[in-house]
Write a structure and sequence with these properties.
Helix content: 40-55%
Distance between the termini: 20 Å
CATH architecture: Roll
Number of helices: 6
Structural class: alpha+beta
Strand content: 15-25%
Largest sheet: 3 strands, mixed
CATH class: Alpha Beta
Radius of gyration: 19 Å
CATH topology: CBS-domain
Number of strands: 5
CATH superfamily: CBS-domain
Strand order of the largest sheet: 1-2-3
Number of domains: 1
């Protein structure tokens, strides 16, 4: 069973990207492009107070008449975040995402966010787990490589 810590350790870039709550939506979008991510955390000082995603922008941005360069990120961010611990399993994460209809989960350890896992990364991990199970079953059935 894969846990979140393993996914974070596999990432080549362990930077936690955040913008200040006083930033504009345009600033956040630029930061997301630079980080090549679909979500960015929002902070006040050292505290994470929300998350802003591409979906938030699609639902709360221009379509509602809010110009990205004039709208504060604090006006459109998601304040109610679902967070997980590094020991949370991939399956538990997927269940939480389904239940709360979110695509990104900040990972909290010792009251600090140490990373964010995305639905895409979790799906990749689940596929990898299934491939491993299939290979083990094939080896068992064929009598090759099992128990070695």
């Amino acid at each position: 069973m894969t846990i979140v810590r393993k996914l974070l350790n596999e990432k080549s870039d362990s930077t936690v990207y955040a913008v200040a709550s006083t930033s504009t939506v345009l600033d956040a979008l630029k930061a997301m492009i630079e980080a090549n991510t679909g979500a960015i955390l929002v902070s006040e000082g050292n505290k994470i107070v929300g998350i802003f995603t591409e979906r938030d922008y699609a639902r709360q941005g221009e379509i509602k008449g809010r110009a990205a360069q004039d709208t504060l990120i604090s006006e459109v961010m998601t304040k109610e975040m679902v967070m997980v611990k590094p020991e949370t399993s991939v399956r538990q994460c997927v269940d939480l995402m389904s239940r709360y209809k979110v695509r990104h989960l900040p990972v909290l350890e010792n009251e600090h966010v140490i990373g964010v896992v995305s639905l895409r990364r979790l799906a990749e991990a689940l596929v990898d787990e299934q491939k491993g199970t299939i290979t083990e079953l094939e080896n068992y059935i064929m009598g090759t490589g099992y128990g070695r």
